[in-house]
Specification:
The complex is a heterodimer of chains A (253) and B (178). Chain A contains one helix and 21 strands. By secondary structure, chain A is mainly β. Chain A is globular. Chain B has one domain: Lipocalin. Chain B is built from two helices and 13 strands. The longest helix of chain B is centred in the first third of the chain and has 15 residues. The interface between A and B is large, with 67 and 57 residues.
Chain lengths: 253, 178
C-alpha cells in the first residue's frame, strides 16, 4: 500500500489539474477525463492508465501510469488478422478478419479473453452501445474473399461471453462507424456517410446519406460529428431531427 | 477455423517465399501488377520531424482530444488541428513519422506507431511536440502489403526496413502471394 500511495497521489493530482486546466471531455464514452477518443478503425486505445495496441496477431498491453515511459505488462497472442480495438465499459472489443474477440479488462493490465465470435472472413471495425455491438463486414480485394456482400451486423453482447447475432443487412463498402444515442453513422468509403436510426437498437433503419462526403473514419460526440475521408476533414452539428449543419471542412489539397 | 488455417498457411507460404506457384494460388491469376516494397534505411525509417502545418493529402484515422483533433496522414504522420472553434479549426502543425497510422493521447502524452516502433511525444505545446521515448519493436508489423489476393515481391530485410508498398507493373509473377 505504501508503494502505491505516490501513484495514487500523482493520479489524483493529475486528475485535479486536468479538471482545472481544461474543460475535460464531458462525452459519454467510457474513457477517463484526460484521455481522448479514437474512431472505430483504431488499433490504439487508452482506458485509464492503460494503453492497448493490437498488432497483426497480438494484443499488447502497456501501463502508462508514467505517461512518458510506457511499460509493457502483458502480450496476448491472438490469431492472425487483427484489425481494430474498441474499449467499452469493462470490455475490449477487438475486430479481426475472422471474427470479434471480447476481452474483459476489469483488471486493465491483464485482460481476460471471454469469447470469440466467429464470422466469415472480412474487415470489421466494431462499436458498442449498451446491449449491442455494431460490426461492419467489408468485402473486396483487401478484405473478404469471394463475392460475398458487405454487411452491417448487430450483435447482442449483453452477455459478453455469449454474443448473439440479431440482425444483418447489406452495406456498400463500410469502413469505420460511430454511435451516439439513437444514431448510428457508417462510413461507406467513396459511397459517402450513411446515417441510420437505431431507436430500436437491434434494427438500424436508413435515414440519410451524405453521398458527397467520402468517409473512412468517424467520431461521434453528442450533437457533433467528425468525419475523415478522401476529400478531407468534415465537422457537423446535429440534433434529434435529421438536420445536419456543416460546421467546417478542411479540404484535401 | 478452416479460414484461419488457410490464412495461416498462406502467411507461412509467403514468409517462406516458396517457389512460384503456377497454379495461381487461391484462383487469382497474375495480372501483370504486383506490390513492391518501399525500402528505407533504419535511420530514414526512424526519422521524426516536427514541421509547420501541412495540407491534408490522404487523411486516415482521427483521434479527438478536446480541443485538439489529431488526423493521421496515411503512413506519413500526424496533423494537429486546434478545434476550439469547430466552425474554424486551425491546422497547427505536422509530425512527420514514417509508417504512422495510429494515435492515442493521454494528458500531455501522445502515442504513435512508427513502423514497428512505439513513439511517445510530449505535446503540452502542440505547436512543437517533442519526441521523448522510442520503444523499438513494440508492434509486430506485417512483412506483406495490407491487401489480400495480391502478388508481391518478397521483402528482403537486407535491403532495409519496409516503409510501405507500391503497386507496380511486373513482367514476371513475383514469388510471394497472399
Amino acid at each position: 500500500m505504501k508503494k502505491l500511495m505516490p501513484f495514487l497521489f500523482l493520479g489524483l493530482a493529475l486528475l485535479g489539474l486536468c479538471m482545472i486546466l481544461t474543460a475535460c471531455n464531458d462525452g459519454e464514452s467510457s474513457v477517463g477525463p484526460q484521455t481522448g477518443t479514437g474512431g472505430s478503425m483504431a488499433r490504439f486505445a487508452i482506458t485509464g492508465n492503460t494503453l492497448y495496441i493490437v498488432s497483426k496477431q497480438s494484443l499488447e498491453v502497456y501501463d502508462i501510469t508514467k505517461g512518458e515511459a510506457p511499460v509493457r505488462t502483458v502480450r496476448k497472442e491472438m490469431n492472425v488478422g487483427i484489425e481494430t480495438i474498441f474499449p467499452y465499459k469493462n470490455n475490449l472489443f477487438i475486430g479481426a478478419n475472422d471474427g470479434m474477440y471480447i476481452y474483459n479488462n476489469a483488471n486493465p493490465v491483464s485482460p481476460v479473453l471471454l469469447t470469440k465470435y466467429t464470422h466469415i472472413q472480412s474487415c470489421d471495425p466494431v462499436v458498442v452501445q449498451d446491449k449491442y455491438a455494431y460490426v461492419t463486414l467489408r468485402s473486396g480485394v483487401a478484405c473478404r474473399r469471394g463475392n460475398t456482400l458487405s454487411s452491417l451486423d448487430v450483435i447482442d453482447v449483453s452477455v459478453p461471453s455469449n454474443p448473439t447475432l440479431v440482425h444483418s443487412q447489406v452495406m456498400a463498402s463500410p469502413y469505420g462507424l460511430g454511435v451516439s444515442g439513437n444514431k448510428l453513422f457508417v462510413c461507406e468509403g467513396s459511397n459517402g456517410l450513411r446515417v441510420m436510426d437505431i431507436s430500436d437498437p437491434a434494427l438500424p433503419v436508413d435515414k440519410y446519406n451524405f453521398s458527397d462526403v467520402p468517409a473512412y473514419d468517424v467520431i461521434v460526440r453528442p450533437n457533433h460529428l467528425i468525419v475523415t475521408g478522401e476529400k478531407g476533414l468534415y465537422q457537423y452539428k446535429f440534433g434529434n431531427s435529421n438536420e445536419y449543419e456543416l460546421l467546417s471542412k478542411i479540404p484535401v489539397l | 477455423m478452416k479460414n484461419s488455417f488457410r490464412l495461416l498457411s498462406l502467411v507461412l507460404i509467403c514468409l517462406a517465399c516458396v517457389e512460384p506457384n503456377d497454379n495461381a494460388p487461391n484462383g487469382v491469376p497474375f495480372d501483370g501488377t504486383g506490390y513492391k516494397p518501399i525500402y528505407a534505411t533504419a535511420d530514414e525509417a526512424a526519422k521524426v520531424q516536427v514541421a509547420a502545418a501541412q495540407p491534408l493529402v490522404q487523411p486516415g484515422k482521427i483521434y479527438l482530444f478536446d480541443p485538439y483533433i489529431f488526423v493521421n496522414e496515411t503512413g506519413k504522420g500526424i496533423h494537429i488541428i486546434d478545434n476550439k472553434d469547430p466552425k474554424n479549426p486551425q491546422n497547427l502543425s505536422f509530425i512527420s513519422i514514417t509508417g504512422n497510422y495510429d494515435i492515442a493521447v493521454k494528458g500531455n502524452w501522445l502515442y504513435a506507431d512508427n513502423l514497428s516502433n512505439l513513439l511517445v511525444f510530449e505535446i503540452s505545446d502542440p505547436l512543437s511536440p517533442k519526441l521523448v521515448k522510442t520503444i523499438n519493436d513494440a508492434i509486430s508489423v506485417n512483412n506483406f502489403p495490407p491487401y489480400q489476393n495480391v502478388y508481391f515481391e518478397c521483402a528482403d530485410s537486407k535491403k532495409g526496413v519496409v516503409a510501405g508498398w507500391e503497386k507496380v507493373p511486373m513482367t514476371t509473377q513475383p514469388k510471394c502471394f497472399r
